[in-house]
Amino acid sequence: MARGVVCDFCGVEARCRCVSFAQNIGAIVVRVQKSSGGYLCKRCIHRTFWTYTPITLLLGWWSITSLIIAPGCIILNLINYLSSLSLPPVPEGAGQPQLTPEAIGRLNAVQGEINDLLARGHEPQQFAAEIAPKAQVRPAQVVLYVRPRTQKILRRSIAPPTAGP
Ligand SMILES: [Zn+2]
User: Fold this and answer.
1) Checking CA distances to 33, which of 64, 67, 82, 101 falls within 20 to 30 Å?
2) What is the pLDDT of residue 163?
3) Would you say 77 and 46 are in contact if contact means Cβ atoms under 8 Å apart?
4) pTM, 2 dp
């Protein structure tokens, strides 16, 4: 599973894993499913697993479709949780780096290299540790710098083909 440098949930700079968790609630005729994922730190992986999985175990079964969906959610959650056990804990005093004007200035100087990596399909969470020393910034600042662009690309790729309401 892919590793990252900044948590998509809490923003802390720590070793992260790309994971996803799902929760299912079956209520006879309706079924409510939610899922979330991304690069998460060990704390957020633990919190999300222990929120989604007990709810699915208790309330996940009470509709026909849920009898199939609930075990799938539990298996997905277990695989993601167990594969993240080797992840080191969030270091004591780890913070949420901010994108300062100084950091933006230094990152602008290596923008060409960043654009090349993005164009070749590399993930910011993975190249951040390589770019950070060159720009003399924190790896998390590289991710924050690139994030608005990657989110725009993601939004464009999931947007409906027709424009306007
Ligand atoms: Zn986190």
Assistant:
1) 82
2) 46
3) no
4) 0.82
